[in-house]
Amino acid sequence: MQLCFDWRIIFLRAAGLDTFLDRETLETIFHFPNNDGSYGEEQRSFLATQGARRPIVFLAFPPKAAGTFLRGAAATAARGQVLRVCYAQGDRDAQPYLPTFLAYYAGGFCRGPLITHVHMQAFPANTLFLEAFGIRPVVMVRSIPDMLASYWDMLDDADGGSSLPMGLNCTIPPGFRAMPAEERAKIMIDIIAPWYVGYYATWSRYAQANPGAVRLLHYSDFVRDPAGTLMQILDASGLAATRDQCQQAIDEVWAERFLHRYSEGVEGRGGDYFSTAQTGHIDRMLSYYPSTMPLRSKLLGL
Is residue 40, in this structure, part of any structural domain at all? Predict the structure, then answer.
């Protein structure tokens, strides 16, 4: 085992990665957690020490919930840098990539705070990872029909070309754009909506079991007061900013909002895309998860 690790050190030294990572950090990179994602006491203590070194703004938003817009605003207000913190996420749920975090805490990547936006569910391996570093994630609560409507628009308009992007943890049927609207609506409800239901099932359960461990935001509050929402994000991450600073950052990013994938930002637009029966189907899926009950009216856009 020691010989194997020494070869890894040689590899990292050849790549120049040992110049700012000490031996204990390098050992941690190659130390697997338990199968459930938990860490032993010694490693957990080490990760907590690293996490105290620098702040991280961690937006664990679902797609189409203003995450790209707000990450840009957070980077502007906090003078930070947006970084990808997962390994080749592609079109899957994000999972944090340990070497990236350890390198950041050791002083790598950027001088200011790390800002990241990932479509991540609150599975135990993910939340145990964040807890080990003391990272407080931020989650946005928005109407699922409204997000599906925005997702639908994205699929229709993607790149303005003929190819379709992959869906999140799913494959979009190749003839999607040519299908009648009624058929496309069924696909959104049958294939895409279950991911959103599962997303809120995991985060609502985690938030209830761990009070204060996650900051829940509401899209309606963001629409009414975007600067106030940005202040909450930074506060949850241990960063201080005045309302004027946050408003200035919002205004700066708003001028380039289309580059940040901010489209309509209109509440209730899901009603123009999906029938009452289809919204009822989302409600039935949510009903399997009692933890979502306090959020049900907002998740359904009622």
Answer: yes
Q: Which domain holds residue 39?
A: 32-300
Beta bridge partners of 138: 59, 215
152 falls within a domain: yes
Answer yes or no: is 25 within a domain. Answer: no
pLDDT tens readout for residues 138-171: 999 999 999 999 999 988 886 555 567 777 888 8
Tokens linked to 161: 């070309």
Q: Which SS3 state, helix, strand or coil, does residue 96 take? A: strand
Identify whether the C-beta of residue 145 lies closer than 8 Å to the C-beta of residue 62: no
SS3 167: strand
Measured distance between the N- and C-terminal CA atoms of the chain, rounded to whole angstroms: 58
Give the integer Cα–Cα distance in Å for 65 and 247. 19
Q: Is 182 exposed, middle or buried (0-12, 13-18, 19+ CB in 10 A)?
A: exposed
In a domain, 108, yes or no: yes
How many domains does the chain fold into? Answer: 1
- The maximal CA–CA distance of the chain, rounded, in angstroms, is 63
CATH number, residue 280: 3.40.50.300
User: 144: exposed, middle or buried (C-beta count within 10 Å: 0-12, 13-18, 19+)?
Assistant: buried
Measured from the Cβ of residue 213, the count of other Cβ atoms closer than 10 Å reads 15
Other CB atoms within 10 A of residue 38 CB: 15
Which residue in 249, 186, 258, 229 sits closest to 61, CA to CA? Answer: 229
pTM greater than 0.85:
yes
Q: Which residue has the tokens 């359960």?
A: 205
Print the SS3 string covering 223-258: HHCHHHHHHHHHHHCCCCCCHHHHHHHHHHHHCCHH
Q: Which residue has the tokens 């840098």?
A: 81
